[in-house]
Every structure is written in structure tokens, then in C-alpha cells.
Amino acid sequence: MNAIASPLLETPTAWKLPYRGKVGMACLIAAESAIFTIFVVAYLFYAGKSLTGPTPREVLETPIFYTICLLSSSLTIHFASKLLERGRRGGFLVLWFLTIILGCLFLYGTGQEWHRLIYDLGLTISTNVFGTTYYSLVGLHAFHVTAGLILLTIVLFFGLADRVGPEQSARVGVLSLYWHFVDGVWVVVFTVVYVLGR
Amino acid sequence: MKATGHKTNWGRLAGPVIGILLLLVQVFFAVCLCSAETSPGIPSIFKPESTPADSIYSLSLLVLAIAGFIFAFVAGLLIYSISKFRRSANDTSEPPQVYGSSQIELAWTVIPVLIVLVLFVATARVIHAIQDAPKPAGAVDVTVIGHQFWWELRYPELGIVTANELHVPVSDPAHPTPTFLKLLSADTDHSFWVPRLAGKTDLIPNRVNYMWIDPHDVGVYVGQCAQYCGIQHAKMLLRVYVDSRDQFDKWVRDEKQSVVTDEATEEGRRIFETTACINCHSISGTVANGRLGPDLTHLMSRDTIASGAAPNTPENLKAWIRDPDSVKPGSLMPGMKLNEHDLDMLTAYLQTLR
Amino acid sequence: MASETIALNIVAPGSRGISDRLHDWAITVDHKRLGILYILYALLFLVIGGVEATIMRVQLITAHNHFVSPEVFNRMFTMHGTTMIFFVAMPLMFGFGNYLIPLMIGARDMAFPRLNAFSFWLTAFGGFLLYFSFIGGSGLYGAGNAPDVGWFAYAPLTARAFSVGHSTDFWTLALLVSGFGSIGTAINFIATILCMRCPGMTLGKMPLFTWMNLVMAALVILAISPLTAAQMMLSIDRYLGGHFFDTQTGGSATLWMHFFWIFGHPEVYVLVIPAFAFASEIIPVFSRKPIFGYPVMVAATICIAFIGMSVWAHHMFTIGMTSYTNSFFVLTTMAIAVPTGIKIFNWLGTMWGGKIQFKTAMLFCIGFLFQFLIAGLTGVMMSVAPFDWQLGNSYFVVAHFHYVIVGGILFCLFGAFYYWFPKMIGTKLNETLGKLHFWLFAIGFHLTFDSMHVPGLLGMPRRIYTYEPGRGWEIWNLIETIGVFIQGIATLVFIVNLVLSYFNGPRAGNDPWDGWTLEWSVSSPPPPYNFTSIPTVASRRPLWDLKHPEDPDSLYE
What we know:
The structure holds 3 protein chains of 3 kinds. By secondary structure, chain A is mainly alpha-helical. Chain A is 73% helix and 0% strand. By secondary structure, chain C is mainly α. Chain C starts with 17 loop residues before the first helix and ends in a 10-residue tail after the last helix. Helix content of chain C is 65%, strand content 0%. The relative contact order of chain C is 0.10. Chain C contains 15 helices and no strands. The longest helix of chain C is centred in the N-terminal third of the chain and has 36 residues, at 70-105. The chains are: A mainly alpha, B alpha+beta, C mainly alpha. Chains in contact: A-C, B-C. Chains B and C meet through helix 1, helix 2, helix 3 and strand 9 of B and helix 3, helix 7, helix 8, helix 9 and helix 10 of C.
């Protein structure tokens, strides 16, 4: 069977549909947002309802520096993508690497905070409801950061092997969208845990 | 394009035949329902005996009428269209291609919206009337605590503790004496459902729920747990005894009485108090103080044992104690591994707990 | 027309061994093969789920029966519900969607073929994991370790304290895994539909089937995720000592209910909207008229999806929410009846004035219309919260949702089989066997599920392995059980039809039903690349335009 040509219309003008990588990533982000929303709802629902144990006010320290690190990494990845589109591979690699460093710093900060909470202050996931909701929410986010960092590192290796050029900028853009999502989630988590929840 | 062919004759009859069959089926069900309702032991929601159940029943008549009318109308249209608009044999032409009609579509949007509004208002009123009903002065308070797989019943103001069989006074609409139930749970979710008296309300751990009943007629009303709570959810039965005022007052007096020690069953009492029975059960006036199982102080005032799983007879009592799994497999009461003599003595003692 | 040559690696038939052919199927990323894999997988579990249902119904045939123990019965209803929803209905919908969407939009495959395959295998593995529970743990006696907490696994029954052993974990993990598969498929559907339509096929010109699968996929993304989150929380409770649903330390049992039903209610729309999609393709073709009111059908579907995200607590009317909260959910639930009713009217409007052919596919769709009407009405009855206080968690509810899922969704699915089997396989299903299947199944269905409303009205709760005599329930349970056996026989007839027609059915040709959408423009079965060259379309019914060049749809849209 050949093409079904309508008797009335010739080839339609510029048939342009969205890039499927972006659409797919947008859907993934929507799904992940729904998952995070449920954890946020649980956190807010249980705020102040622990029967025992340390409260947020007693033990939480606002991680300003590490938040700045993570949010800056959104900037660096944004500019890295722009550079790649223009063919500036060197600049892309530098900023991409910087993104990874900033992300790792954030994870280090989270690890440090958790170490303090667990060993110095005795707050674990099973201590009380606050512990459960805190570690779950922040942990879920940290997991997504880790997954993102792994993906970013893979791209870095490809980039260092000179396999990433402007032709890949659409795909790199998809990954960068994911990274922006991870940062956006942190804005929400930060607000809920360190601002509202105390 | 082939025509429908040799099955046309069946098809022609199908519409009217289906229609009549279905009509007969619905009539059959309605008749069965009505006859089922008349027997008192049947917990039909269409035989309400208490105001919440009454309100629900009246509302349900409105809802059923609306639903019935919609069903008749739409099903009628469907049956009509499959009868009238069938393709005849050998007709290969296409019918007029109609893409829609704004007026018709508007009509069949607006009318359902209006029906929804009517239904909603009627419903909201009943919700409010039942849930937000104020508690009058003569009300009896009962705290119901759901367990796996029995009901703990406490009358805080009367100082009574019993299990599984709820006694309440009949309520005269002129001077109402409803019973207000506070619903708690000691373990998993349960649900208190006695259809002829009220809709069900759940018993949820770490949460307090309330419901009320004001039965108009003396009698026994049956129900059971209506939220899956584990292996013996099916046998967590309920019996509500609606007593006349005098009967209820007598029942209260009897429940408040302490246990009378009887020399004849001394051995049975000793067995009870030295075996693990006292870990779970209470008998007021003795050392037995357990809260994990039903209070046995007035065990013999109840018609059934094991939350309705068996009638309260000496044989059943013995079988239950010997091997609970034979009566209610999976219930949380352990088999006590008593020999037959001890079992006899123990049962005889329990028979004195009137 | 096309100037490129496509090198077709055509191997002589019969020259590839069976292991090679199986290997091809195992590694396939072709949407058509994955679609068929989904469907075959689901048919297997349909039979298994049916056996579980039969076991339950035999146990309930009389009061105080001893056919199975309470342990086994409780595992049966848990597995039956979980299987039918996650490993029958959803895979069937994904299977048909996978097969048909690229064909209907003039594409060569889905947007992400490897993700497609991955999603299928995740779903499949989830099902096998769930069923491994029967033999894991203590073995077959007492049905092993299969979960027995009900398909909605209410807390705190699922806590370590009340669900000893690993049965609940099988439930949680199996659904977590298959949930990821579902989300993957949904991403694929959306990306394919939005990004790979052929030239000329604007969103307003694509078949309703595609629209409805788009809406369904969006719902999957928004609805499965809460379940995933809740199951993660449950696992944290069970394994890491968490307290999300631990009522002894301040946790909330109702929080689980909210999370579950925020998934659970949109889930039923995930199941029913593709059924609507089947009806919206089959009814027009066998009435010989276009769908009545295409734009409103799209709008109504989107409305249903939106409103459907706001009705969840009508599953929780009995938990003691305030009268205001209850009234809110009454209103939203009643509201959703409006767009749903509109669709029924639109289907009726399609048949009205048409020239109806009573092929088996159409019979099933007519059955769907009738039964979905009743199911919708019983749903509206239960949206009246006080009525639900009586009937919730009773056999009336069980009757209602089986009316929707079996009487509505499964009937449409059967219709879809009869309609698209010729396209997928190349031969037609036998019409006589098909009609036998339809009538037998309809009779069995009505025997079982019409009767089932009555015990609910007479006070019979659900999930009970036995019941007391003398409450008026016995006769209805007996009738229901008889109906189940009739449905079983009907399903056997169907399977026989499938097998016989696969081997011996009459050739179907490209377009056995004189259809109008693009899938009927290619051979049956289609070549791996679907279209020799990507078509260009000008209306919602491109083949109608081709067959009626004097009166194309594009003049009227």
C-alpha cells in the first residue's frame, strides 16, 4: 500500500512535531514529581506528630552552602549545554565537569549531615515518625542526585573520548532537563524540611 | 462488503427477546428481595429499624428511582436502536454520515448535571443529619474496641465490660434514648456493620470514630465486621440485642454483679487461675485481669461464643477451649492442651459465670 | 514514489529453527510483537485469575463450606484481584495500544522501542515474582507464601506485626517492579502520540483510540506513581523500622488509604478508558457512521481523567471523615458521571440512524453499552455516601466493580480481539464460535453478577471465606457460582476459537471490516516496517476519504 494522498491537500507545510526525547523526559519528570509529592505530603502530614524523640527544630541545620552548590550546578549545566550547541566542546566539558563536582559536593554535604544526625544526635529512620519521613524524603532526593551524577559521568567519559558534539546536544539537553528537575525537587524539599517543617 | 447473511433471523429477534428477558430478570430479583426482607434474621438494608438506617433507606428509594428511570430510558434507546437500525441483507450502501449535533449534545449534558445537583443536595442533607446529629441527654455511651477477631464492649458510665453481644435500650422517638458508639481498634482496621440499624463505620487504630443508633423495636439484629482484618475476619460476628427499658436495666444490674464463688466448681476455678487463661481474660472479683481476650465475667449471659462463631453450649465451650482452631481456625486463642478431666472442670466453672 | 530501496532480509519460511524464532521473540523491540507478547501474557493470567475466582466461588457455594481453608481463601482473593488488575487488564490494554498506536498514526514503531521491550519484561517479571510467592516460603501447603492482605493491602494489616513472613513483600515488590514497567509504557505512548504522527494528522485528526490511550498514559504517570511511593513507604516500614503506617508510634492507617486510593481510583480509569477506545473504533465501523461528536468525546475523556483524580475518597466514606469532606467527594464522584454518561449517549448517537452489522465484535460492544450503563448507575448509587455506608465493603461493591471490569472492560476487550485479530494474525476468528462465546459469556456473567448485588443489600460483607446460614445469602451465592462455570466454558470456547483460527481461519485480507483508520491500509499481518511510505492524511477517517473520494470527511471537519 502506498501513501494515502488526500485528493484535496498536497504535502502539508512544515510538519514539525516535538522532539521525543524531551517529551519522554517530561513524562518521566511528571511521574517522579508525583512520587515526590506523596513523600512531601507524608512529611507535612506527620510534622509535629512524632510521639517521642528529637524534633526537627532540635536537630536540623539548614544546609545553605550545599544548597547553593546544587542550585549552581543547574546554572553550570545550562551553560554547558549552550556551549555544546555552539560546538564549544572544551568549554562544555569544563562546565559539565564542574556540574558533577557541585553535585558531588551536595551529596557529600548530605552524607555529612546524616552522619551527624545518626551518630551524634541519635536520629535514625526508625527513631520516630520525623526520622522516617525525613530520611525517606531527603534520601529519595539524594538517590535521584546519585543517579543523575552517574549519567552525567557517563556523558563526561564520552565527552573526554571526543564522542560528544553538537549533534548530541539534543540528547544532552534531555539529561540536563533531568538535572534541572532534581534541583527543582531540592527547592521543594528544602522548603518543606528546613523552612516549613520546623 | 458482505451482507450479514444467514444469521439475520436470530438477530431480528434478539432485541425484543433480550429486552423482555432482562425485564423478567429484574422483576425476579425485586420479588426475591422483597420476600427475603420479611424474615427477621436477615440483615437487609431495606428493613431499617433505626433512624440512621431509616434515613439511608428513604434516600436509597430516591436514588433507586432516579437510577431506574435513567436505566429504562437509556436501555430503551439502546434496544430500540439495535432493533430499528440493523443493516438489512444485501444492503451495501452507507447511511447518512452524521458527525454530531450541538443541540442534542447540550441537552444530554445539561440534564445529567441537573440530576446530579438534585442527588447531591438530597445526599448532603442526609450526611449532615446522620453524622452531625447532637447527642441527647438520655443517650447510652458504649465504647467499642475492635480486636482480631472479637468486639470489646465497654459502657464507661455504667461500669460494664462485655464482649461481642451489644445490649442497648429501645428508643422511643418521642423521648429518644439512642446509643452512641465510640469506635476504637486495638490492632488492625475493622468495621461495625449491623445493616438494619445503621450504615457501617470503621474502627481504625490510632483514630476515634463515632456512630449512633436508636432502634425502634426490640429484637436481635445481626451484623459482622466489614473491613478485612485478617484470617478470621469472616467470623467476627455481631449481635445487637435491643431490649425494652426494663430488660435493659435488668441486664445492666446483672452485668454489674460480681461473680459468685461456687464450692462445686472450685477445681475449675483453680485451673482457670493457674493456667494461662488469666493472661488474656478477665473475670471481675478474681485475679484474672487480662485484656487481650474477651471479658468472661458474665460469659453465660451471652448466646454465642468466639464472637458468634458457635452457640454458647457446654459442648461448644469445651471444643473451643480444647482446640480453638476447630471452631475458628486461625483465631488468636491458643489451644490450652488440657486433659479431658481438667477440661470438664473448667467448663463447669465457666458455666457458673452468669 | 519512494526512491530508496529497503533491503528486506527475507528468509525462506521454515528455515529458522524453533530456538531461533523464540530468540527473535525474546529480544524483539517491534511494537507489534511486544503487543502480542503482552496479550498472550495477559491471557495466561486471565485463566489463572479465573481459576482463583472459581476456587473462591466454590468455597462460597454454601454456608460453612470447607472446600478451602481461610488461609487459602484469603490468598485467593488477594491474588485474584492483584492478578486481574495488574497482570491481565493492564497488559491487555498496553498490548493492544502498543500494537495499534503506531499503525493508527502512520508511524513505523513506538518512540522508544528498547524502553518498550524493557517495560514489557519488567511487567512480566513482576507477575512471575508475584506467583513465585505460592512456592516460596512454606511451600504449596496453605498456598505457600502468597499475599493474603487483600489487593489494597490496608495498613496496619501489612505491618510486620500482623503480616508475618514475606507474603506482603511479594505483593509490594511485584507491583513495584511492574509499576515501573507501566510507567515506561506510558512514557512511550505519550512520546509516540505527541511526536510521531504522520503528516496531516493533527491532534484533532487522530483516531479516538489514540486520544484515549494518550489520556490513559497520562493517568498512568500520575496515578501509578503514588502507589509506587506508598509501596516504598511500606517497605521502609517493614524492613527499615520506619513508622509511616505504624499506628503504635503515631503513624496513620488512613494515610495508606489516601495514598492507595489516589492511585486506585485513577487506576480504574486507566482500565476503562482504553475500553472506551475499543468501543469508539468498533461501534462506528459496524454502524457504518462516524463517531457521533468526536470533539466532545475527546473533551469528555479528558474531563473524566481530571475529575477522576479528585474522587478517591469515595472508597473511604466509612472511615469517619467529616460530613463536609464526605459531601465534597460525593459531589466530585457524581460529577464524573456526567462526562461518562455523555459518552454512552455519543455511542448511542453513533448507532442511531446507522446500518448495524451484528458481527461478534459489535455484539460485545453492545453488551458493553448495556452493562456499563448498569455499572455506572450502581456507581452513582454508591456515590451517595449514606448508601455507601450500608453497601461499601459489601458484595454490592464487588458486584458493581465486576460489572464494570467484566461486563464493561472485558466485553470491550473481547470485541477488540474479534476486531483486530485478523489484522494481527491474518485470519479471521470464527463468527459462529464467536457468537457462542458471546451468548454463553453474557448468560454466565449476568447469572453471577446480577445476583451478586443482592447479598450486598442483605448485609453480606466482602472478603469472607464463609458465612452464616439463615441470612438469606445462600441461594444467591449458589447462582453466582453456577454463572462462573458458564463463563469458564465461554472462555474455553474463546480460546479454542483463537487456536483454531490461528491455524485454520479464513484469510482476512487488509481490510475485512471495511474500516477507516490507517491500520486497515496495510497487510494483515503488517510488515515489520508497517508502511511502505509514511502516509499523509487529511481527515479523521483517511480510508473513508480514499473509498469515497466524492464525499471525503475533510469537507466536514
